[in-house]
């Protein structure tokens, strides 16, 4: 995942030589939209075998004929990365430069998947929409994830506001324990809702590329979510006047993990 806001928990390692994270992340997210559109609209693309492209579920008949579904999926994909681009500019705060590995790894990761997803959802290469209920439910789940992810990012941003800091317990490190909404259940609700978004997109598409992207997202965010959760619990141990981190709060998935 591309670098995000560092608000609480253990401080991020400082990178003295690197790249501007606003520039890298902006280019990454806009580029992900561009490569998706290129893959979707590129004419005379050679045939690609199933299941690299196409749906893993058989069509239920009439709905499979509705080619406009591909444009709805395109709109959902573009909406996600436009939102992330806007957040890079106006929501996230970056306290360090991005290393060379991050700076080249993030766009490579997203652009490869963006191209594959755009390619795999092309009707002329064999993609046929699946069942209408799955398409509708998946699209709604995706939008729930988008709203939750955006709200969680705004909550993290509010922790940097000095006018709100007096409402929260604060340590000498200037870190605070996030509270409110899903933060009462998990340490990283923004990661949780990111997974929800791509789970919904997977339900709506049933394309191998999207399912692999979902799996990669889950593995990555489970790792980073657990690390952040450990950092919170280490710093907020209840000693020397520090707030005790809520013992029942999970890392990523409410009541589970």
Task: Walk me through what this model shows.
By secondary structure, this protein is an all-alpha fold. It is built from seven helices and no strands. The chain has helices at residues 21-41, 69-90, 100-120, 132-158, 162-165, 189-205, 208-235. The longest helix is centred in the last third of the chain and has 28 residues, at 208-235. It is globular, with a radius of gyration of 20 Å. It starts with 20 loop residues before the first helix and ends in a 22-residue tail after the last helix.
Helix and strand arrangement:
Layout: H1 21-41, H2 69-90, H3 100-120, H4 132-158, H5 162-165, H6 189-205, H7 208-235
Helix pairs in contact: 1-2, 1-3, 2-4, 3-7, 4-6, 6-7
Cα distance spanning the termini: 20 Å
Specify Rg, calculated over alpha carbons.
Answer: 20 Å
- Taken as a percent bin, the fraction of beta residues is under 5%
Quaternary structure state of the chains depicted: single chain
Which secondary-structure class do the elements indicate?
A: mainly alpha
Low-confidence stretches: 5-15, 166-170
Order of helices and strands: HHHHHHH
Number of helices: 7
Main sheet: strands, sense, barrel: none
| Helical coverage, percent range | 40-55%
Global mean pLDDT: 86
Broad shape: globular
How many strands in all?
0
């Amino acid at each position: 995942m591309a670098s995000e806001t560092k608000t609480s928990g253990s401080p991020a390692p400082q990178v003295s030589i690197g790249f501007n994270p606003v520039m890298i992340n902006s280019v990454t997210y806009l580029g992900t939209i561009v490569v998706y559109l290129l893959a979707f609209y590129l004419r005379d693309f050679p045939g690609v075998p199933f299941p690299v492209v196409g749906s893993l579920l058989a069509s239920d008949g009439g709905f499979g004929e509705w080619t406009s579904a591909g444009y709805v999926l395109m709109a959902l994909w573009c909406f996600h990365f436009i939102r992330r681009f806007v957040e890079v500019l106006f929501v996230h705060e970056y306290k360090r430069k991005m290393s060379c590995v991050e700076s080249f790894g993030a766009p490579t990761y997203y652009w490869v998947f963006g191209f594959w997803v755009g390619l795999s959802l092309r009707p002329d290469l064999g993609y046929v929409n699946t069942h209408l209920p799955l398409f509708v439910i998946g699209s709604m789940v995706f939008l729930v994830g988008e709203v939750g992810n955006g709200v969680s990012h705004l909550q993290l941003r509010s922790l940097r506001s000095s006018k709100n800091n007096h409402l929260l317990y604060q340590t000498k490190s200037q870190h605070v324990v996030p509270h409110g909404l899903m933060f009462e259940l998990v340490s990283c609700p923004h990661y949780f809702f990111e997974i929800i978004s791509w789970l919904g997109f997977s339900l709506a598409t049933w394309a191998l590329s999207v399912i692999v992207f979902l799996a990669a997202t889950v593995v990555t965010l489970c790792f980073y979510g657990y690390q952040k959760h450990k950092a919170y619990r280490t710093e907020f141990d209840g000693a020397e006047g520090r707030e005790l981190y809520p013992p029942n709060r999970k890392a990523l998935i409410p009541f589970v993990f």
